[in-house]
Amino acid sequence: MVAIGAVRRPHGVRGAVKVFSFSGEIAHFEGLSRVELRRKDKVWSANVEKVLLQGGVPLLWFSGVTTPEQARDLAGAEIWVPRDQAAPCGSNEYYITDLVGMTLLSGGDSCGEIIAVVDGLQAPLLEVKRETGTVLIPFMSQYVGDVDTEKRTVELLVPWLMDTE
């Protein structure tokens, strides 16, 4: 399963929601019939009754959600689907789900495990767990090199980013 977007806010008076696409692609939303909605404290399945792509924004109608108030309750929930229903990744594109659990390498040696990816001002930040705690590494080409999805490794180009003292 991969996260493909997040519910933003209600749209109209019949329970539709506006969705933010994590990949920027929206065509794959049209084929959705069942999704998993996730919040930190809750995970639940939802049937998708209707999808409309309007001005580059997916609008979704979920079964049982018929009012703006019910739609507002979904705001912030991430939309998860099986990988084959997600937009394919392009060159040098990765789903956050794929990065979590990878080993960060510096000079060919392991220097930590990526345990999360968090939003940063200029770029996503890799949260890396190491023996002495965690550190945040900007996921930018000047700091991070090769991402090998088969070996599950990410190359760190700037080793001093691991120094926390």
TrEMBL record:
<comment type="subunit">
    <text>Binds ribosomal protein uS19.</text>
</comment>
<keyword id="KW-0690">Ribosome biogenesis</keyword>
<keyword id="KW-0963">Cytoplasm</keyword>
<dbReference type="Pfam" id="PF01782">
    <property type="entry name" value="RimM"/>
</dbReference>
<dbReference type="InterPro" id="IPR011033">
    <property type="entry name" value="PRC_barrel-like_sf"/>
</dbReference>
<feature type="domain" description="RimM N-terminal">
    <location>
        <begin position="4"/>
        <end position="85"/>
    </location>
</feature>
<dbReference type="InterPro" id="IPR002676">
    <property type="entry name" value="RimM_N"/>
</dbReference>
<comment type="function">
    <text>An accessory protein needed during the final step in the assembly of 30S ribosomal subunit, possibly for assembly of the head region. Essential for efficient processing of 16S rRNA. May be needed both before and after RbfA during the maturation of 16S rRNA. It has affinity for free ribosomal 30S subunits but not for 70S ribosomes.</text>
</comment>
<dbReference type="GO" id="GO:0043022">
    <property type="term" value="F:ribosome binding"/>
</dbReference>
<keyword id="KW-0698">rRNA processing</keyword>
<dbReference type="Pfam" id="PF24986">
    <property type="entry name" value="PRC_RimM"/>
</dbReference>
<keyword id="KW-0143">Chaperone</keyword>
<dbReference type="InterPro" id="IPR011961">
    <property type="entry name" value="RimM"/>
</dbReference>
<feature type="domain" description="Ribosome maturation factor RimM PRC barrel">
    <location>
        <begin position="97"/>
        <end position="160"/>
    </location>
</feature>
<protein>
    <recommendedName>
        <fullName>Ribosome maturation factor RimM</fullName>
    </recommendedName>
</protein>
<dbReference type="InterPro" id="IPR009000">
    <property type="entry name" value="Transl_B-barrel_sf"/>
</dbReference>
<dbReference type="GO" id="GO:0042274">
    <property type="term" value="P:ribosomal small subunit biogenesis"/>
</dbReference>
<dbReference type="InterPro" id="IPR056792">
    <property type="entry name" value="PRC_RimM"/>
</dbReference>
<dbReference type="GO" id="GO:0005737">
    <property type="term" value="C:cytoplasm"/>
</dbReference>
<dbReference type="GO" id="GO:0006364">
    <property type="term" value="P:rRNA processing"/>
</dbReference>
<comment type="similarity">
    <text>Belongs to the RimM family.</text>
</comment>
<dbReference type="InterPro" id="IPR036976">
    <property type="entry name" value="RimM_N_sf"/>
</dbReference>
<dbReference type="GO" id="GO:0005840">
    <property type="term" value="C:ribosome"/>
</dbReference>
